[in-house]
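Quick check before the chapter quiz. The format below is the same one you will see on the exam, so make sure you can read both the input and the output lines.
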Amino acid sequence: MDLFMAKEILIKTHTSETQIAITERGRLVEFYIENPTRKRTLGNIYLGSIQSVRRNLEAAFVDIGEGKTGFLHRTSLSSNLAQQLAFLKKGGLSVEKFRENWTPKKSGPGKTSGTGHRRKPRGWETFDLLQRRRRILVTVIKEPLGSKSVRLSTEVTLAGRFLVLVPLSNQVSVSRKIGSYKEQRRLRSVVRNLCPPGFGVIVRTAAQNRDVQAIHTDMKLLLGRWRKIEAKLLRDAKTPAKLHEDVSLVSSLIRDLFSEDYSRILVDRPRVHRNICSYVQAVAPHLRSAVKLHSGDKSIFARVGVEDQIEELFSPDVALPSGGSLVIEQTEAMYVIDVNSGNSGRRLDRERAGLQVNLEAAEQIVRQIILRSLGGLIVIDFIDLQLEENRRQIYDRLCSLLRHDRASSTVLPMSEFCIVQISRERIRPSLRTHGKQEKVPPKPSPESVEASIREHVSRSRGEKVSLHVDPFTAAWLTSGILSRHRKLQVSCKRRIQIIEDETLGLGQFRCIDGQTGEELAMKNGHLSPGGAVRVEADDTGST
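Here is the expected output.
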């Protein structure tokens, strides 16, 4: 049965949004959303222009053509920055030709600061290369968050399934997760034979025990991407410019995660299914049979049984098995998680009951942090514990659970007030972006929508009206022998053409006058941002 399959990747797609769930034995462990408001920029490569250099911030602001300037910190400068700047200055050369004629400048003795004899801190010599209006190659290493712009790095890389290509470098390194020294040595030898001069390579963990042909295929794919970047630099030297857009969220997850550990990839759209099959066939043909196309009336998440778990992610309240609960809220500066005991531990003394709930809460907190992608400062208010050994047990449990998180984090010991502070790396926008729950207006009733449509149609000057509605309203209007659609035409004395529009939300519609071609105005209500009429409820909650 689907529920008992080990690890799965579930991909639910819509016209404007993609949702990805990763499960282990029917339990949701990771969840991702990609839509126009959460557009992925991670891994994109830009030809930027330095707008300003702020030594007090140890950073530069770079125009990459995406509205806000990107933030480039001193610690994100690569060791080959001087070579990269020279490569851009030459222009029109491939990496191989550039490396043939380029000789690095010999660095003199370290400069002193002021009248003392101390050298500049490490990295400042590279920072001095940043100058206003200078062109520079940068890649996005952190997505924008709220008012914060993207975080940039000059460590330009192209990631594949088995390799990471590093232009303008000569280093070959192997993932530390490959424990066998013999396998590390084999992979280094294979990559050095395949890699052209002027390029460095990082061998990923997925390359372990792969044959030469698979690694060679990945290398050719990455070199092909870099050739396209070189062609753009040669053809169009305008600054700023996007040189490379990294793969979509779906492709990146398949590339980085999918392996023999996963029993299945389940997709609900044939086009996405074909694309994934093509990619898996190219890089891991033995896993091709694990890519399945979902069919049936139920949604893909309902079929596997994780729909309720996904809905829980958008609620501030999370129930605990013992009867306690968590309340997760976001402020401007941090996330705050409050642990409530509820009805748990009635038969236990206060200390034991608090310890039991806190241990349950620790496991659920880490799970929610990963699922919701909470980043930055997270403050947790646990139930009060008097004994230091119990507080230490909660702290150790949190640290142990967070070791399995792909994002790095720092956990401070529990204070006397049973407060724990966690600083977690932000790897993508969180699912909840506002601390306070937004007030959602009640859904309009079908009858109120019909009345509003009738009012619009009656204002038409011509005999024909085009009515654009969402698919659910369209089905409601046209179902039955004596449909509401027909009754509307009779009562309004107009011919009404029903047109389904998936971009409209429930209760939204457009009325187009067949004679003038203009959109009919509304007497009671207002226009939504998309121009569609939305029926709203009054203060009493009735429509």
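If your answer matched, good. Confidence is low (pLDDT under 50) at residues 108-119, 433-441, 522-543.
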